[in-house]
Amino acid sequence: MSDKNDDGANRDATKRSARERLQVERERQKTRDKRRRTLIVAAAVVGVLGLATVVGVIAANTGKDSSAKGGPVVAPSGATGKDALAIQTGKPEAKSTLTVWEDFRCPACKAFEDNYRETIHELEDKGLLKVDYHLVTLIDGNMGGSGSLKGANAAACAQDAGKFSAYHDVLFQNQPQEVDDAYGKNAKLLELAAKVDGLDTPEFRQCVEDGTHNSWVGKSQEAFRAGKFRGTPTVLLDGKDIFSDQANPLTPQKLKEQVEAAAKGSGGASGAGGESNAKGSAKTSPSASASPSGSSSGVGSGSRSASASPSASRTASGGAVKSPAGD
Questions:
Q1: Helix orientation angle between 147-160 and 164-173, rounded to the nearest 10 degrees
Q2: ∠ CA 226-230-232 to the nearest 5 degrees?
């Protein structure tokens, strides 16, 4: 009787041992399957991200030319310079000329405007400085959307109405985040026009809605690319890059001193101004949001040409605006 009980106990122990081994093996198999599924999913995610990156690069490179094509080139009223691609503010007889290439979606351009706006307007009011604004579309090309183009067209429409300077300032003061294509909506541009006395007229609205100056903006972008500027904002004082001297960075006060000195006939624009000039083959600028053509941007870092991310933008604190080497 005792032997039978022992045999039964042994058989039960053997069965339990077999079940336990089977359970352990099942757990191991589950672990292996889970690991394999994880690897497959991870590979799929990497593939999707890689594809998204490729598509993003393609979009950046195609967007730089596609948005402003078509239609006649209609320059805004009073446009000046080569091919009438500049909108000039200030008195024409002013001795000093500030040339500014800007994008209304560019954070570094906003940094420049916020730091220098008051000084520039003061010098314009005194008849010491005139500014030639060139409007470009780097951010549209880098990030997609049409806010750079439509914002520039609206600003050109404001020029037709004799309200460019005020509307230009309003657009930068209300600039959305770089990734937010708010200026791609005409309704937003018209809403901001209400902040400028006398601008919101049927004529202005029609000009904005029709994209009257879109091709002109596209031509300005082509001129920017052909000029081999490194990014936006590109700012030249009498042909010299004013941000190239990193050891002695420009401030609004230094700009004021240079312009006042030039008005007195003592040269003026040399000092803290850089050594690059408009004829240089690789004109530097302070910014950073890479553009599809490989250019980078200036002041702080706003709009680059080789598809940098929005976080590439950097602005100097206080009045001095430094230009990083790679923007």
A1: 150
A2: 100
CA dihedral 280, 283, 69, 133 (to 10 degrees): -100
**Could you give the angle at the alpha carbon of 168 between the alpha carbons of 162 and 171, nearest 5°?**
135
Strand segments (E) across the chain: 87-90, 96-102, 129-135, 234-237, 240-241
Task: For the full predicted model, state whether its pTM sits above 0.85.
Answer: no
* Structural Rg of the chain based on CA atoms: 30
Identify the pLDDT of residue 230.
83
In the block, residue with structure tokens 């879109």: 214
DSSP, collapsed to helix, strand or coil, labels residue 289 as coil
User: Contact, 124 vs 88, CB < 8 A?
Assistant: no
Residue pair 72/203 in contact (Cβ under 8 Å)? The answer is no
- What's the CA gap between 106 and 191, in Å, rounded? 20
pLDDT at 10: 59
189: CB partners within 8 A, 6+ apart: 150, 151, 154, 171, 183, 208
Per-residue model confidence (pLDDT) at position 277: 38
Q: Are 261 and 267 in contact (CB under 8 A)?
A: yes
Are 151 and 104 in contact, with CB atoms under 8 Å apart? yes
Exposed (0-12), middle (13-18) or buried (19+): which is 321, by Cβ within 10 Å? buried
186 burial class (0-12, 13-18, 19+ CB within 10 angstroms)?
A: middle
Contact 188, 107 (CB under 8 A): no
End-to-end CA distance of the chain: 93
SS3 (DSSP) at 157: helix
The DSSP annotation for 69-110 comes to: -SS---PPTT-BSGGG-BEEEE-TT-SEEEEEEE-TT-HHHH
Least Cα distance to 103 among 321, 271, 266, 313 occurs for 313
Rounded CA-CA distance 78/159 in Å is 8
Give me the residues of the chain with pLDDT under 70, please. Answer: 1-19, 22, 24, 30-70, 266-327
Output the pLDDT for position 165. 98
Residue linked to tokens 């209304």: 104
Q: Are 275 and 237 in contact (CB under 8 A)?
A: no
